[in-house]
Design a protein that fits this description.
The complex is a heterodimer of chains A (about 625) and B (about 475).
Chain A (H helix, E strand, L loop, with lengths): L6 H26 L2 H10 E6 L6 E2 L5 E13 L9 H8 L3 H14 L5 E7 L1 H10 L6 E10 L6 H4 L2 E3 L2 H6 L8 E3 L2 H5 L1 H5 L3 E7 L5 E4 L15 E3 L3 H10 L5 E7 L4 E8 L12 H10 L9 H4 L9 H10 L14 E4 L2 E4 L9 H7 L2 H12 L7 H13 L22 H8 L23 H12 L3 E3 L4 E4 L12 E3 L7 H13 L17 E7 L7 E8 L6 E7 L9 H14 L7 H9 L2 H18 L1
Parallel strand pairs in A: 2-10
Antiparallel strand pairs in A: 1-8, 2-3, 3-4, 3-5, 6-7, 8-9, 10-16, 11-12, 11-20, 13-14, 15-17, 18-19, 19-20
Helix pairs in contact in A: 10-20, 13-15, 14-19
Chain B lengths: L1 H9 L2 H21 L14 H21 L3 H5 L1 H18 L1 E3 L2 E7 L2 E3 L1 H17 L9 H20 L3 H5 L4 H7 L4 H19 L2 H18 L4 H24 L6 H20 L4 H28 L2 H10 L11 H11 L27 H33 L4 H25 L17 H19 L7
Antiparallel strand pairs in B: 1-2, 2-3
Chain lengths: ~625, ~475
C-alpha cells in the first residue's frame, strides 16, 4: 500500500532493541551485581546494640560501691542527615558551629552509612530537652549507655575503672567493637566477663528518615542482652574510707586481711584518687593529668606495685626459720654490744639490755640477735655449701608467699624479689660466698623487696600459726556464693605451727611490753594486739615507717600492714595508724583515750614536710 | 444495534487485554509503593491507590465514550482539537499552579489536571491529519514547515511551563515521519548528533574532532576515493596542523588544539577538492561539508550545554554519563532507584515486601519512579515482564497501524506507538541509570489521572479508528 511499508521493521526493531538493552541492564542490576542488595540492606536496617547493664559491686557488708547511671550517646548516620537548623541544634547541645562541622566531618570520615558517636555521654538534662526535638534532626539518634557511679569515693585502685576498648582489646576478643567499654583496672578488669554480661542486638527496619518501621524479620536476628552479674567484694568500705583518711597527706599503703579466709578487708594506696574522676567525658583529661602531672603518682597502686625492703618486720620470718631449723630455741639468748660485730664488719643496734631471748629480740628488734641467727642458719653444718643452705632458707621464705605473685584476683600484682643463690653467685662472682656477704637479709634489708600485700599475707600466716589463704577481693559472684576454689585452698608454710607461739609472744611484747616496746601506740583497750615495727633505710630521704600487726591475739580477725613512706620509724606513724585501723574494725569506733592520736594522724602532713626538707637540702647544697 | 455488534466484533481485543493487564498491574504497584498500614484496603479513596482506582474507573468511562463517537469525527476535528489544546496550554501558563517547579497544572477544587498530557493526542491527531493529506510531500519545504509548526507549538509551550520531559516527547515523532518517508539520513544525522553530544561532554572537543576525521576518512574510502589520496590528504592536514601548532606556540594567539584542527581543515578544503577528487567531487564535498558541520556542532555542544541547559539538567546529564558523581546530591534518586531495583534479585522480595520503596528511600515512588517497586518486589522476572508487556502493546500497535487502509489511521497509530515507546524508554531508562532524570510518567503505571486518561484517550481513539478500518479509505 505504501512505499515505506518495510520501515515498520526498522521502527519496530528500534523499539525491540531498546527494550532488549533494558532487559540486559536489569539482568545485570538484579542478578549479576550484588552491590545493590547490600546497599539495600544497609539502607533499611538499623542494628541497635542492646548494652547489658553492668553488674554492681558491693562491699562485704552489702554496702553498694559501684552502680550504673544512664548516659546518652548522641549518634549520627551521616547519610541520613538532612539540612537542619544548626543554630537550634548547637544550642541544644551546647556546642559551637565549628565544633558541629568538625564532628560531622569526623563522622563522615568514619562511615557514611554506619552510625558513629557524635557526642558522648550527654547529661540526662540535655538529653531530656534534646529528645523532644530530635525528630527535627534526621540522621541523629540517641543510644543509651551506662556509666559507673560511686557512692563512696574510695578504693579507686581496687575497683578499677571503665574505659573505651582499644585496638588490642578488639583484636583479642571479638566480643568488643569500637566504642565499647571495658574494665581497665582492678575488679572491673579481672571480673570483666562476669560484670559485663552479654550485649544484645536488635535489628529494625528503618525508613529513609531513619524512623523505626518494625522488627527485622520478626526479630529473628535479635538477641536479648544478658545482664552482668553483681559482685560482692571482701572490702570493708567503712574501714577503707577510714584508712584513706588516716593516710591523707602521706605516701604509702595499707593492706588488711582477714587471716581465716584471706579476704582483703582494706587495700589502699596513698595518695589515691576519686574513682568518679574516671567516669565519662572528663576521664581522658583527668587521666592525663594524674598520670603525667602529679608527682605523687596517685595512679600507682602502692599496695601491690610498690616493692619495698621489708625492714625489721622480716625478723619475724627469720626467727621462725631459725626455730624450724633448730638453730635457736625460744630460750636462746644472744648478746648485743650496740650491734653485731664480725671482724671489721659492724651492724649497728640501738642501746638496749643484753643479752636478749627470742621474745625480747622481737620486742626490741635486736639487730645483733638476727644477724647472728641468720648467719647460723646459713652456716649450719648439715649443709655442704652456702648455696645449699641459702636455697633452703629461701624455700622457707617463699612459703610465706614472698618472691612470687600470690595469685590474687586483682591485676598488676608484682612478685617482689627474694634473691636466689644464683643471684649472689653472679653478683659476688663466686659460688663460695660467705653468710656475712648477705647478712643484711637478716634484718630485712639488702636486695629484698616485698609488696605491702605480701607483708600483710605474711602477718596472716603468723596470725594463723602457719598457713594462709591466697588474699582475694571477691567474696561472692551473682547469687551463688562460690568463688574460685584456689581461694579456698590452705597454703601451708614450711614452719611447724608450734614455733609460732614464741614469736607471737614477742609481737605481744612489742605492743604490751612496757618501756622499750616500739608498738605501744597500737595498743587497744580490751583487745590483744600483736605487732612488729620496722624502719626501712631510705637513701633518698627520711626512712620509711612500717608496721605489721594482727588482733586479737588468740582469735585473729584482722592482719594488717601499714607502710608510710618517709615516716621516719615504725613507731611514729605506721604503728598508731595500724592500731586505729584495728580498733575501728573490731570495735567500730575509736575510744576516747585515743582520739588525740587519731587527730594527730589525720593532721600529719608528710608530703609537705618532705617538700620543705627537699627545698632546705637544695639551699644547703647551693651554699656549699 | 447492528452497528454496536460490529463495533464490538471489530475492536482489537488483544490490545484491550494488554491495556487492562498493564492498568491492573499499575494499580497494585501503586498500592505497594505507598502501602500504608493504617489504610490497608486497596479501595481506600483517601490513599493514592484508592484514588487511582477512581481514575481507572473514569478512564474506562472515557474509553467507552471514545468508542461510541463516530470515527470520522477524529479526523474532522483534529485541527480544532489541537487549537483548543494550544489555548489550554497558553491558559495554564497564566492561570496554572506550580507543582514541583513546573507551571503545568489547572486546579479545579480537589482535582488537578495537566493539559500537557492531553496535548499529546491532539498533536498526534493533527499530525496524522496533515501527513495524510494528498498535497503533503515530506521533502517539500512547506510540508516540513507545517509539520514543524504542529510539533513545535505545543512543545515550546510545554517547555515554557518548565516541563522539559513532556516537551521532549514530541521529538519521537521523527520516527513517525521516518515511517512516512523522511530520509533515513536524517535519522542517521540525529543519531550522530546525539553521539557527538555525549562524546564532547565526556571527552574534549579535540578528541571528538579526531574521531570526526577518522569517520570522514572511512566515508571517503567507501564512496570510492583511493587510499593513497586519503593518505595525502591526511598528511596535508597533519602538516598544516603541525605548522599552526608551532606558530601558535611561538606567538601569543593562545588557540586551543580544537581551533587549530578547524583552521587546518578550512585551509585545506579548497585545495582538497580541486586537487584530489575531480570525478567524485560532489560526494567528497558532501563529506567535507559534514565534517565541517560536525566540527561546528561539536564546538557548539559545550556552548549549548553551558548556556541553554539549566544547572540541574547539566548535573543530571553529568551524573548519567559518569562525568561527575554525587550519589547523595543529584545522583541520589537514581542511586536509590538502582539500589531498589537491584535488590529485587531474580524473583523479587514479594508483594508489599519491598523495603527500599516502602520506606521511602526512593523518591517519587508512585509517580516517576514506580518502576522501582516493580523491580524490587517482583524482581527480574516481574520487571522484564512489564517491559515485554509494553513492548507487545507497542508492536501490536505497529501491526495494527500497518493494516489500516486509511493513512490517517496508520499515522495516528504510529504516533501512539512512538509516544508510548518514548515514555517507557525514558522513564525506565531513568530508573536504571540509562537515561537522564526526566520526569515523565510510565504509561499505565505512574500514579495520576491526567497521564492515565491521556494514554487511554490516545489508545482508544486508535482502537476506534482501527475498528472502522474496513470502511472507506479517507
Amino acid at each position: 500500500m505504501n512505499n515505506y511499508s518495510n520501515r515498520k521493521f526498522i521502527v519496530g526493531g528500534i523499539f525491540a532493541f531498546v527494550i532488549l538493552i533494558f532487559i540486559i541492564r536489569l539482568f545485570n542490576l538484579q542478578i549479576i551485581d550484588d552491590q545493590y542488595k547490600l546497599s539495600a540492606e544497609s539502607n533499611s536496617q538499623r542494628r541497635v546494640t542492646q548494652y547489658a547493664a553492668r553488674g554492681l559491686i558491693y562491699d562485704r557488708n552489702g554496702e553498694l560501691l559501684v552502680y550504673n547511671q544512664a548516659a546518652y550517646d548522641l549518634m549520627i548516620i551521616p547519610r541520613q542527615v538532612k539540612t537542619f537548623d544548626t543554630l537550634d541544634f548547637c544550642y541544644l547541645l551546647g556546642i559551637d558551629k565549628e565544633d558541629l562541622i568538625h564532628r560531622i566531618q569526623k563522622a563522615k570520615k568514619h562511615s557514611w552509612y554506619r552510625s558513629s558517636i557524635f557526642i558522648k555521654q550527654l547529661s540526662s538534662e540535655r538529653y531530656a530537652v534534646l529528645q523532644e526535638k530530635l525528630y527535627k534532626f534526621p540522621g541523629f539518634f540517641v543510644q543509651t549507655r551506662t556509666l559507673r557511679k560511686y557512692p563512696h569515693h574510695n578504693a579507686a585502685h581496687t575497683l578499677g575503672y571503665l574505659g573505651e576498648v582499644n585496638d588490642r582489646n578488639i583484636k583479642k576478643d571479638d566480643y568488643y567493637t569500637q566504642g565499647d567499654y571495658i574494665g581497665k583496672n582492678g575488679i572491673e578488669n579481672t571480673y570483666e566477663e562476669i560484670l559485663r554480661g552479654v550485649k544484645g542486638l536488635k535489628v529494625y527496619w528503618v525508613d529513609v528518615y531513619n524512623r523505626i518501621k518494625g522488627s527485622f524479620h520478626d526479630g529473628k536476628l535479635d538477641r536479648d542482652a544478658i545482664e552482668g552479674q553483681d559482685i560482692k567484694t571482701t572490702l570493708d568500705i567503712n574501714l577503707q574510707e577510714y584508712g584513706e583518711k588516716l593516710m591523707q597527706n602521706k605516701k604509702g599503703g595499707i593492706v588488711a586481711i582477714e587471716p581465716k579466709t584471706g579476704e582483703i578487708l582494706v587495700k589502699l594506696s596513698s595518695p589515691g584518687y576519686d574513682p568518679e574522676m574516671f567516669v565519662g567525658r572528663a576521664m581522658s583529661k583527668n587521666y592525663r593529668e594524674l598520670a603525667n602531672n602529679d608527682t605523687l603518682k596517685p595512679l600507682f597502686d602502692r599496695s601491690m606495685m610498690a616493692t619495698y625492703p621489708p625492714g625489721s618486720i622480716f625478723k619475724l620470718v627469720n626467727a621462725l626459720i631459725a626455730l624450724q631449723e633448730g638453730i635457736i630455741t625460744p630460750y636462746t639468748r644472744i648478746k648485743c654490744q650496740n650491734g653485731y660485730h664480725a671482724g671489721s664488719f659492724t651492724m649497728g643496734c640501738h642501746p638496749h639490755k643484753s643479752p636478749v631471748d627470742l621474745k625480747e629480740s622481737v620486742q626490741i628488734s635486736c639487730n645483733a640477735y638476727y644477724a647472728q641467727t641468720f648467719r647460723d642458719i646459713l652456716d649450719a653444718p648439715r649443709f655442704n655449701s652456702i648455696n645449699e643452705s641459702y636455697t633452703n632458707w629461701r624455700r622457707h621464705v617463699t612459703s610465706f608467699g614472698f618472691g612470687e605473685k600470690l595469685g590474687t584476683d586483682l591485676p598488676n600484682e608484682l612478685t617482689g624479689f627474694i634473691p636466689t643463690a644464683n643471684y649472689y653467685n653472679k653478683v659476688i662472682r663466686t659460688r663460695n660466698w660467705k653468710s656475712l656477704n648477705v647478712v643484711s637479709l637478716a634484718i630485712g634489708q639488702g636486695e629484698l623487696s616485698i609488696t605491702p600485700l605480701q607483708m600483710a599475707n605474711m602477718v596472716a600466716c603468723v596470725a594463723n600459726r602457719g598457713y594462709y589463704y591466697t588474699p582475694h577481693i571477691v567474696k561472692s559472684i551473682g547469687s551463688n556464693n562460690s568463688i574460685d576454689p584456689k581461694f579456698l585452698k590452705k597454703n601451708k608454710t614450711t614452719i611447724d605451727p608450734s614455733y609460732f607461739e614464741p614469736v607471737i609472744e614477742g609481737m605481744d611484747l612489742v605492743v604490751h611490753g612496757g618501756e622499750g616496746s616500739t608498738g605501744r601506740s597500737s595498743a587497744i583497750k580490751d583487745i590483744r594486739v600483736c605487732g612488729k615495727t620496722g624502719t626501712v633505710q631510705n637513701p633518698h630521704g627520711d626512712d620509711h615507717s612500717v608496721y605489721v600487726a594482727f588482733a586479737p591475739k588468740d582469735d585473729p580477725k584482722i592482719a594488717i600492714v601499714v607502710y608510710v613512706e618517709n615516716g621516719v620509724w615504725g613507731a611514729r606513724y605506721a604503728a598508731p595508724i595500724s592500731g586505729l585501723m584495728i580498733e575501728k574494725y573490731l570495735k567500730g569506733e575509736i575510744s576516747e583515750n585515743k582520739k588525740y592520736l587519731e587527730k594527730k594522724m589525720l593532721e600529719a602532713d608528710l608530703i609537705k614536710e618532705q617538700e620543705i626538707k627537699k627545698v632546705q637540702l637544695k639551699k644547703e647544697s647551693s651554699h656549699e | 444495534m447492528n452497528r454496536k455488534v460490529s463495533l464490538i466484533k471489530n475492536l482489537d481485543w488483544m490490545t484491550i487485554m494488554l491495556y487492562a493487564i498493564l492498568v491492573f498491574l499499575g494499580w497494585i504497584n501503586i498500592y505497594a509503593a505507598v502501602y500504608n498500614e493504617d489504610h490497608q484496603s486497596i479501595f481506600d479513596a483517601t490513599q493514592r491507590y484508592g484514588k487511582q482506582l477512581m481514575w481507572i474507573g473514569a478512564a474506562i468511562f472515557i474509553a467507552i465514550i471514545i468508542l461510541t463517537i463516530e470515527s470520522k469525527f477524529y479526523s474532522a476535528f483534529a485541527y480544532p482539537t489541537l487549537i483548543l489544546m494550544i489555548l489550554l496550554l497558553l491558559a495554564v501558563l497564566t492561570f496554572g499552579v506550580k507543582v514541583n517547579g513546573a507551571r503545568s497544572w489547572f486546579e479545579l477544587g480537589a482535582i488537578r489536571f495537566q493539559p500537557a498530557e492531553f496535548a499529546k493526542f491532539a498533536t498526534n491527531l493533527a499530525i496524522a491529519r496533515y501527513l495524510s493529506q494528498h498535497n503533503f510531500k515530506i521533502h517539500r519545504l512547506k510540508s516540513l514547515a507545517v509539520t514543524g509548526l504542529i510539533l513545535f507549538t505545543p512543545a515550546v509551550l510545554i517547555l515554557m511551563q518548565n516541563d522539559t520531559g513532556s516537551a521532549l516527547v514530541y521529538s519521537v515523532f521523527i520516527l513517525v515521519l521516518y515511517r512516512e518517508g523522511l530520509s533515513g539520513f536524517v535519522l542517521f544525522l540525529a543519531l550522530l548528533a546525539a553521539i557527538f553530544f555525549v562524546f564532547t561532554l565526556i571527552y574534549s572537543s579535540f578528541t571528538v574532532s579526531i574521531l570526526i576525521l577518522i569517520i570522514a576518512a572511512i566515508s571517503l574510502k567507501t564512496i570510492g576515493i583511493q587510499t593513497k589520496q586519503i593518505a595525502i590528504a591526511t598528511a596535508m592536514l597533519a602538516g598544516s596542523f603541525g605548522t599552526l601548532w608551532l606558530i601558535n606556540k611561538g606567538t601569543n594567539f593562545q588557540l586551543g588544539n580544537f581551533s587549530l584542527v578547524v583552521i587546518s581543515i578550512l585551509l585545506n578544503t579548497i585545495p582538497f577538492l580541486i586537487y584530489t577528487y575531480r570525478q567524485k567531487i560532489k560526494k567528497a564535498a558532501l563529506v567535507l561539508l559534514l565534517v565541517i558541520g560536525s566540527l561546528f556542532y561539536t564546538f557548539s555542544v559545550s556552548y549549548i550545554f553551558d548556556t541553554v541547559l539549566e544547572s540541574h539538567q547539566q548535573q543530571r546529564i553529568n551524573e548519567l554519563l559518569g562525568i561527575k558523581s554525587d550519589p547523595y546530591g543529584t545522583g541520589y534518586n537514581v542511586n536509590q532507584s538502582k539500589i531498589a531495583i537491584g535488590s529485587g534479585g531474580f524473583n523479587g522480595k514479594g508483594f508489599l515486601n519491598g523495603t527500599q520503596t516502602k520506606f521511602n528511600f526512593v523518591p517519587e515512588q508512585s509517580t516517576d519512579f514506580i518502576f522501582c517497586t516493580v523491580g524490587e518486589e517482583w524482581g527480574f522476572l516481574g520487571s522484564a515482564l512489564v517491559l515485554l508487556l509494553h513492548l507487545s502493546l507497542i508492536l501490536r500497535l505497529i501491526y495494527l497501524s500497518e493494516r489500516q487502509r486509511s493513512s490517517f489511521s496508520r499515522i495516528y497509530g504510529y504516533g501512539v506507538a512512538a509516544i508510548l515507546f518514548f515514555h517507557v524508554a525514558v522513564n525506565v531508562g531513568m530508573t536504571i541509570g540509562l537515561a537522564p532524570v526526566i520526569g515523565i510518567p510510565l504509561p499505565f503505571f505512574s500514579y495520576g489521572g491526567s497521564s492515565l486518561w491521556s494514554f487511554t484517550i490516545l489508545l482508544f481513539i486508535f482502537l476506534r479508528l482501527d475498528a472502522n478500518r474496513l470502511e472507506l479509505l479517507r
